[in-house]
Specification:
heterodimer, A: 330 residues, mainly alpha, two-stranded antiparallel sheet, 75% helix, globular, B: 357 residues, 76% helix
Chain lengths: 330, 357
């Protein structure tokens, strides 16, 4: 039955197909494919160009530098013996980002859990929207708020940390001044990366197969046991990559940090004391006063930032891509 | 009737009831625990060194956790006690996230409203010294609208075409690489986009630091956002529509332009609005690619041009009372702009949802 039918179809459709894809149709398709593929390739070109131009323009400062680029904390790229290095910048960037992660990851995962599995189904999307609104607030406003509203209210917490946790070098404060510190920058960064972490985690938590959830509940698990046994094992790669995306944002954040930190080029482990500096904040603050070597040095530090965030983002995407393959979302 | 009597007796028998359901806290238990915690915290406030509203509330919250968990542990057992503790903590994280959002919005409105008036909206900072009150953000609004407008005009076609490539022509190794790097590009820090435009266009090709250079740096930030959201929308256009069109002999490119894009248009518009909202608050790349200006400049190609974010930055930098007030008013204007776009985008998305999932 099927063989003669297929046989009858094949000779019919075969001579027709060259006519269907006649020259007029073909040209339109080819132009359109070319345009859209070009737009796709442009993305690759831009990413490559960012790396190439930053390396090219950073080279003059590397050649002029008389100090070790990685271990020096000072920043005098425009003085006569050119001396600059990224040690203090790297320290401030990583320390503020790590503080932000310590605060934001548990809270962000909690929010994602709340919206995905605790809140009422009908409320969930509105609640998610409210958290997303946090992401819509521009960083300059977080900077202004951190400087004018948060900072004056952080003395109490700083004093408390010094009094009771002062035996940990991090929270020891020998100056008795608690403003413009890496700690406050970390808190503001934590608020800024919360929506990133909770949105990505939520997406994965929602995808947990309901069979897993119902099976654990049917076995008499409490809701928390269900979360631990069904949601977390499934969502772990999502949470890890969400955290890394948040980390990437925290590392590259400029304006809020530039407004809050007091931009000192030294490594100070007492994070509640004024001081600290980051790659991005330093670029924004020094940009307009830099000479030609100074600009090149700032570009060099921007190159380091670009490479770090690139690595963090690539790692995050690789982790989540592995999950996407068998999630059955599409 | 007589057969039901033993059952009713069984249910009303308190001993049997408790063996069936196990120990369980009464419904009012959380409220009682909360009230007790507040009372104890208030006492602590009155008689010990705990002070301030924040301190009292934190103590009350901790007491609540201890009281409720302990009570539940005694009555319901370990597993339910942990469940209650976890539930409380999960609810708390959400409240913790709301606090800064509320604080930011309230302080922006409360402080911004003081100088947010007609003069602020209709005048520039030309001939206004940082110390004196008055002046406005008209020059910054013009700059932001021009820069974001140019960026949108450039980024939207590129983003949509790239998304079409990924969804309609994808599958090959090139598409996989593009898709991967779109994700990575989303994570490029905004200051690096500014650095790229400065090194690439300003230093190498001699384009002056201008509104146009700023717009290009915003393009870099917009493209991946637009590609991602458009891609998501194109993916949920039902395949039946495409196949029906092919069956009528319509070529692929016309099918995409006439069938696929119109079907997904609401979602694409939403994505574009979200991208615009995100970049209009960007400050860092603008600081590297423009010079600050105090007066109106309609020409984005040459000369310094202000924008709302750099206006706020500049006013904070001046540091006088009058300029800080202007900074808050500028922040309010910026947040109004962004939130209106954001809410509108969500409304568009909700209104024209595709029924595919």
């Amino acid at each position: 039955m099927s063989t003669p039918l297929a046989g009858a179809m094949a000779p019919d459709s075969e001579p027709d197909s060259p006519k269907l894809s006649g020259s007029a149709v073909r040209r339109g398709d080819r132009v359109f494919l070319g345009l859209s593929r070009g737009a796709g390739i442009l993305v690759l070109v831009i990413m490559a160009a960012i790396g190439i131009f930053l390396i090219w323009r950073a080279i003059p400062s590397f050649q002029a530098n008389t100090a070790n680029f990685f271990t020096t904390s000072d920043w005098f790229p425009d003085s006569d013996p050119v001396v600059f290095g990224i040690a203090s910048l790297a320290f401030g960037t990583i320390m503020s980002a790590v503080l932000a992660m310590i605060i934001a990851v548990p809270v962000g995962v909690g929010i994602a859990l709340f919206i995905a599995h605790y809140a009422h189904r009908r409320l969930a999307s509105s609640l998610a929207f409210i958290v997303d609104l946090l992401a819509a607030v521009p960083s300059i406003i977080f900077g202004l708020w951190g400087l004018q509203v948060l900072m004056p209210n952080m003395n109490g917490l700083g004093t408390w940390l010094d009094q009771y946790l002062g035996w940990i070098p991090l929270f020891n404060n020998t100056l008795g001044i608690y403003t413009k510190s890496i700690f406050i920058a970390g808190v503001v960064l934590a608020i800024m990366i919360l929506p990133t972490i909770s949105a990505v985690s939520r997406e994965v938590f929602v995808q947990v197969p309901s069979a897993h959830i119902e099976a654990s509940l049917a076995l008499g698990a409490t809701r928390w046991e269900m979360v631990r046994m069904a949601v977390f094992p499934f969502g772990r790669p999502g949470v890890i990559s969400a955290s890394m995306l948040g980390l990437g944002r925290a590392l590259g954040e400029t304006i809020a940090v530039a407004l809050i930190l007091s931009a000192v080029f030294e490594i100070n482990w007492h994070v509640t004391e004024p001081g600290g500096n980051t790659f991005a904040a330093n670029i924004a603050l020094k940009w307009n006063e830099a000479g030609s070597t100074g600009l090149s040095a700032l570009i060099a530090s921007g190159l380091v930032l670009f490479i770090i965030t690139l690595l963090v983002n690539v790692a995050a995407r690789l982790i989540i891509a592995r999950r996407r393959d068998f999630s059955g979302a599409n | 009737m007589s057969t039901t009597t033993p059952q009713q007796a069984a249910v009303t028998d308190p001993d049997l009831h408790s063996t069936l359901t196990g120990g369980k806290l009464p419904r009012w238990a959380p409220y009682a625990a909360a009230a007790a915690a507040l009372l104890l915290a208030w006492l602590a406030n009155a008689f010990t060194s705990v002070d301030g509203v924040a301190g009292t509330l934190i103590v009350a919250a901790l007491l609540y956790l201890v009281l409720q968990t302990g009570w539940s542990f005694a009555v319901e057992g370990r597993r339910h006690a942990i469940d209650r503790l976890a539930t409380t903590l999960v609810y708390t994280t959400f409240l913790v996230a709301l606090a800064p959002l509320a604080s930011v919005l309230i302080s922006v409105v409360a402080r911004g409203i003081t100088v947010f008036n007609w003069e602020f909206l209709t005048s520039s900072m030309r001939n206004v010294s940082p110390r004196s009150p008055g002046g406005g953000a008209l020059h910054a609004m013009i700059g932001t609208i021009e820069q974001v407008g140019i960026a949108t005009i450039i980024a939207v076609p590129i983003g949509i075409m790239a998304a079409i490539y990924l969804v309609e022509y994808g599958g090959g190794p090139l598409a996989k690489w593009v898709s991967f790097f779109v994700d990575v590009m989303t994570g490029v820090p905004s200051i690096v986009a500014g650095l790229f435009v400065f090194t690439g266009l300003v230093l190498t090709f001699g384009l002056g630091r201008s509104g146009f250079a700023a717009a290009i740096s915003l393009v870099i930030l917009m493209i991946p956002v637009i590609i991602r959201t458009t891609e998501e929308m194109l993916k949920i256009v039902p395949n039946d529509l495409r196949e029906a069109s092919y069956a009528l002999g319509v070529p692929k490119w016309k099918t995409i332009l006439r069938i696929v894009l119109p079907t997904a248009s609401a979602g694409i518009i939403t994505g574009v609005m979200l991208a615009v909202a995100r970049v209009s608050g960007e400050t860092a790349p603008l600081l590297l690619t423009t010079f600050l200006s105090q007066s109106i400049n309609w020409n984005p190609i040459t000369g310094p041009q202000a924008s709302l974010p750099t206006f706020v930055w500049d006013q904070i930098g001046s540091g006088t009372d009058a300029s800080i007030n202007r900074a808050w008013a500028g922040a309010m204007l910026l947040i109004l702009f962004v939130v209106v776009l954001y809410v509108a985008a969500k409304l568009v998305a909700r209104r024209f949802k595709i029924d595919a999932r």
